[in-house]
Design brief:
single chain; 419 residues; alpha+beta; 3-hydroxy-3-methylglutaryl-coenzyme A Reductase, Chain A, domain 2; Alpha-Beta Plaits; 10-stranded mixed sheet; 16 helices; globular; HMG_CoA_Rdtase_eu_arc; hydroxymethylglutaryl-CoA reductase (NADPH) activity; hydroxymethylglutaryl-CoA reductase (NADPH)
């Protein structure tokens, strides 16, 4: 007989015992009183606007931390990256590695800057990176790349949807020409069609050069979208620039077989003695852990199987000026660990959804550019190498955390470093 979860705290039931219905209504009812502290007017970054916001905030201690003299001196560089600017937040940055990567694009030993407030994180990635480097490095391969935007169109019936598709597939050359007028780097490579009843989703696929490309593909697709609405012989009942099929900033399973951003795989083969030296466990135990947690992930409905890609991605994305919200989609992937016929540990990761760039976005901001410069990967021609380094970093993290669980050190490390 299942147990009742009476020990769980039910706030609504508890509140019902402490306040009357009238008091509850008063607590949660909309409040239409006047705003007494209107902080924002113009969104633009000017000294006058920043001063105005801090006058309204009236919190000098916070101002001292967020708008320190160095930030004040260089605040104009943030003009294209934020609205309603009031200052900067300082995060600790640690360095892991060097991490040796033998890729199609990334070749060398990379010091890895990681921005985090989570104790034990950088130490864990440093251990994994040192282990991989001791094995001669991770082999890494960029498999595919592309960024999508997916307009959606609703019609009155399936017949209209079919007629619309029959027309739109003849328009690729013109849609490509229009989309590429908005960017000097982006290239429209394909448009896929998905029909669901009387709804049509067009998947615009782009190459975005060395930029991560979300804004690029949005602007490019919007021009094509407006052309479709103005010229289609079958007028949609309604339509939107994105129908949520792209997976933008959301965990999704479709990219496991395809790509969004950059798809990369990385592997390493580790001799028994190095597993014991760095991880204090055995290849067999590492494989057993992988088998058990794969089943556990399936039982929980996890998309993909990995231990903690999100830790590496969040820390490196923040340090290197990537869009941190893309961790939601980039952290999808597969980790696999096996024992080879020689008794060594084979470990691999495949990440189909790395949204990384080395130009544009936040990559040119002072601290973020400094971190990319530490990697030697800022600027044009470097994004493919960065993606391979990121995959190798995730592999390092998987090895380290699995090793910690297998050796019984996971809790001990957090207790030692976090307390």
């Amino acid at each position: 007989m299942p147990k009742l979860n009476l020990h769980k705290r039910d706030y609504v039931s508890q509140l019902g015992n402490e306040v009357t219905p009238e008091q509850m209504n008063e607590l949660i009812a909309p409040k239409h009183r006047a705003i007494t502290q209107r902080v924002n007017r113009s969104p633009y970054l000017t000294e006058k606007n920043v001063d105005y916001r801090w006058q309204k905030l009236a919190c000098p201690d916070s101002k001292l931390e967020l708008l320190d003299p160095h930030t004040q001196q260089q605040m104009s560089v943030y003009d294209k990256n934020i609205e309603y600017f009031i200052g900067t937040v300082k995060l600790p940055v640690g360095i892991a590695g060097p991490l040796r990567v033998n890729g199609l694009f990334a070749q060398g030993d990379y010091p890895i800057p990681l921005a985090t407030t989570e104790a034990a994180l950088v130490a864990s990635y440093h251990r994994g990176s040192s282990l991989i480097t001791a094995c001669g490095g991770a082999s890494a391969m960029l498999l595919n790349e592309g960024v999508t935007r997916t307009p959606g169109f609703a019609f009155r019936n399936l017949a209209e949807a079919g007629q619309f598709v029959a027309w739109v597939v003849t328009q690729f050359d013109e849609l490509k020409r229009l989309a590429e007028t908005t960017t000097s780097h982006g290239k429209l490579t394909d448009i896929n069609v998905n029909i669901e009843g009387n709804h049509v989703y067009l998947v615009f696929e782009y190459l975005t050069g060395d930029a991560s490309g979300q804004n690029m593909v949005t602007i490019a697709t919007n021009v094509a979208f407006e052309y479709i609405l103005e010229n289609t012989p079958i007028e949609p009942h309604y339509a939107f620039l994105d129908g949520n099929l792209s997976g933008d900033k959301k965990a999704n399973s479709q990219t496991l077989r395809s790509v969004r951003g950059k798809k990369v795989t990385a592997e390493v083969i580790i001799p028994v003695d190095l597993v014991e030296k760095y991880l204090h466990t055995t290849p067999e135990r590492m494989m057993q852990f992988g088998q058990m947690t794969t089943v556990g992930g399936a039982l929980s409905g996890t998309i993909g199987i990995n231990a903690h890609y999100a830790n590496a991605l969040a820390a490196l994305y923040i340090a290197c000026g990537q869009d941190a919200a893309c961790v939601a989609e980039s952290a999808i992937g597969m980790t696999r660990m096996e024992v080879t016929e020689n008794g060594e540990l084979y470990a691999s990761v495949t990440l189909p959804n790395l949204m990384v760039g080395t130009v544009g976005g936040g990559t040119g901001l002072p601290s973020q550019k400094a971190c990319l410069d530490l990697l030697g990967l800022h600027g044009n021609g470097q994004s493919q190498a960065l993606a391979e380094v990121v995959a190798a970093l995730c592999l390092a993290g998987e090895l380290s955390i699995v090793g910690a669980f297998c050796a019984g050190h996971f809790s001990r490390a957090h207790h030692k470093l976090a307390r």
